[in-house]
Amino acid sequence: MSLVDLAFPYRDNREFGVTSTALVFVVLLVEIELVVLLGLAVVAHRFDLFLSGQSAILPAAVLVSLATAIVFGVRARSWSRARIASIGEWSSGAARYGELLAQKHQR
Q: 3-state secondary structure string, 39-101?
């Protein structure tokens, strides 16, 4: 299993799971830390402030990343289910897909 499989599980007709949510969490955490590092160390030339502020920066970054990853994971699971269902409908051919749409429209 590669990182691409974790990031895009619908390619293998799988749902967005816990490992994919964890990958989103880690990526977001690293991005937030890098943005703060760029802001403080590179732009403001205060690397010491970045290091001393880790007691406040890291917990805030973890909370933001965790909340965002959970919301994204919940939404991606429902999206994955719809995506897998549509792939299943399309895999049987365009004519069968048209028949399914016609049946749904008649109901």
A: HHHHHCCCHHHHHHCHHHHHHHHHHHHHHHHHHHHHHHHHHHHHHHHHHHHHHCCHHHHHHHH
